[in-house]
Amino acid sequence: MPTFEFEDWMVNHYWSNGYMVLRQIIPGSLLRDLRNAADRARALAYRIKGPQTQRIQPLVTYADDLDLQPFYNYCELPELVDAIHKLMGPEYRHHNINNMGLLVDPDGHSWNQGWHRDAVVEVPEPVQSDSEFRSTLEEVWFNRRLFNQVNCAIYNDSCLWYVPGSHARQRDLPGEIQTIRADHLPKWHDDTSETEFEKTCYLHAATFPGAQQMHLIAGDYMLYRSNAWHCGNYLSYQPRATIHDSCVYQEGDFVPNYRKRWAQVKEDAKARYAETHPADCTLPDAPNPT
Fold first, then answer.
1. Domain 18-276's class?
2. Cis peptide before 124 (omega within 30 of 0)
3. What pLDDT score does 130 carry?
4. 22, 85 in Cβ contact below 8 A?
5. 3-state class (DSSP) for residue 72
6. Please, which residues bridge with residue 111 across strands?
7. At what angle are helices 254-276 and 131-140 packed, to 10 degrees?
8. Res. 36 pLDDT band, cuts 50 70 90
9. Which is nearest to 75 in space by CA: 157, 152, 159?
């Protein structure tokens, strides 16, 4: 495969479809160093969080135990700096080193994260339509400075499923159901075989309306709008080490101010829900803390 070259059509593809894959933009020498560092990070994740963990984040928290230099080299990669400036503008950078994580394969059995949209995933559906929540959401939903998420594959990675174009609408279509909540997700039982559960998880991902499986080759950098419908489907026997991060708008205070305000709006919405549904206290945490 030839080395990466930026082309003008990529800009329209990103904003129209909600994702863009910069193929083979990570050079082989850096990929080798990232893979060595990522293998140690994966082992550390299992040791700290158990065999079913699917991420270690942020990596900087574990600086005493890991070699983070390859990740800093990734942050300084001229090809990526240039590509993101052409795709997004000079006020963006392709990483957030302080929040950068690594997505890994579970070491126990396969797993499915569940379909969701970032920003609204933690908020119960009954209060997502109330006026305070909806008015704030409408202010930020189409803002290009937000929801630009990154998966950069260190090994081949086909775990992400995505609905192209769904970032361009706030309202859900028939059949689009948030499934990250436990009662909607495939459930592992000790008497379930791995092959049966793997197929159940696959069907859960594949039958969602408009779902497409994203196939990344080691060295590919994928940027995607995380307010689109997406889910993760993980295989226990397929090695995974994927940088999980965000493409950051750097100018002014808009992004940090938004995050503070949006966090409060979500907490208020959850509190209103708890007042009327005191028995339901099992709301999910944000799956992608970027």
1. mainly beta
2. no
3. 78
4. no
5. helix
6. 234
7. 160
8. very high
9. 152
Q: Encoding tokens for residue 126? A: 């009954």
pLDDT of residue 1 exceeding 80, the answer is: no
**Which single residue is written with the structure tokens 């499986």?**
213
CA distance 244 to 214: 15
Predicted confidence (pLDDT) at residue 208 exceeds the cutoff of 80: yes
Per the CB < 8 A criterion, the answer to whether 152 and 218 are in contact is: no
Domain ranges of the chain: 18-276
Q: List, as one string, the DSSP characters of 194-230.
A: HHHHHHHHHHHHHTSTT-EE--B-TT-EEEEETTS-E
Would the pLDDT of 28 be above 90?
yes
Decide if 213 contacts 151 (C-beta within 8 A).
no
218 vs 31: CA distance, rounded Å = 8
Q: Specify the DSSP element, H or E, that contains 56.
A: strand 55-56
Cβ-based neighbours of 14, under 8 Å, separated by 6 or more:
20, 87, 223
Q: Which residue has the higher pLDDT, 7 or 128?
A: 7
User: Measured between alpha carbons, how far is 78 from 84 in angstroms, rounded to an integer?
Assistant: 10
Mean pLDDT of 156-161: 98
Taking the CA atoms of the chain, what radius of gyration do you get in angstroms?
19
Task: For residues 23 and 241, give the distance between their C-alpha atoms in angstroms, rounded to a whole number.
Answer: 17
Which DSSP category does 82 fall into?
A: H
Q: Nearest to residue 83, comparing CAs of 230, 182, 244, 221?
A: 221
CB 27 within 8 A of CB 82: no
Q: Which residue has the tokens 């080798």?
A: 32
User: CA–CA separation, 227 vs 255, rounded Å?
Assistant: 15
> CB of 161 within 8 A of CB of 231?
yes
d(CA 38, CA 161): 23
Taking a C-beta distance cutoff of 8 angstroms, is the pair 124, 284 a contact? no
Cβ neighbours of 6 (radius 10 Å):
16
